[in-house]
User: What shape does this take?
Amino acid sequence: MNAAGLTQLFAAEWSRLFSRRVTLIALVLIGTLLVLLTFGFTLTRSTPTATEIELAKTNAASAGEVWDRKGDRCSKVQSGLENAEPNESFPRGCDYGPRPTPESLLTYGFSFHRQWPSLYTTAAIVLAVAGFVLGASFVGVEWSSGGMASLLLWAPRRGAVLGAKLLAACAGMGLISVVYLGLWTAAFMGVAAGSGTVSQMTADEFGSLLLTGVRVVALALAGTALGFSIASLGRHTSTALGVGVAYLMIYELGAVVLFSVVETVDYSQKYRLSSYIAAWLTKDFTFDADAGPCRTGCVPEAATGFSGSWQQGGLVIAAVVAILVTAAFVAMRRRDAR
Assistant: This one.
């Protein structure tokens, strides 16, 4: 098959993707979710009064001083400059969380500056699940209906056919993700514009927002490729859906129960894909293992169970996707088309 044939095949698959009812239903569902969440946050937004802002600033200054003292005390104990009292305990790595700010103390209402990371995590889950379903159904229905066998009569190069379908599915989901995330961001910034804010986002924070958006889109593409590959291996959409549900219910949730019983749940997170997805989206992920004898009188050292960066999370996700995609192409070449 020459380049012109591949281009025609890709164009045909692209057109088929957006003409399918599953795609249209998915677009309606994720669009409805955006509307409902926007409406819900609109109801909860509120503009703090000048008195409330001043009170928040005063409380933040006081809480910030306490935060500084605790951090300084913990650092000195950790470095050996001071000794801990018998009943004095410290968090692992002297992590007392973010320093209190006026905005963090105004917990009511809606603040895009404060809540955008959780909003983007929600969008990532929505888009990844949508991509998994769309990718699985896009190729799964071709196998189950016999359409793949008919297509291979016209274009016998199996790898090229499967590659064109995968590329069309990922490109389509990429476009959907970019548009949806743009609307998602605009909608919630519009909600935030209707209420006052104590602090404004800096250029660095906007840069972080954009990079997180890129990671959200990349995760949606990974979900699409995973669903596509599993459905191609099983030659049915239900295969991918069954594997996805089984993995979540048996391995992800079931492992939590199992390792909780044997008291090694810290260790289990190292082998769960969700841990690396969390690291990918939030830039890092650390599971706090049991401090044991360091509950009092000392500073616990870094957890030995699992601690990963977004780079590590991305590598693991990419490796899983690469293995399944490769398996799908190998199976496509080795098996019959029926």
The longest helix spans residues 158-193. The CA atoms of residues 34 and 184 lie 7 Å apart. The beta strands are 284-286, 307-309. The chain is about 75% helix and 0% strand.
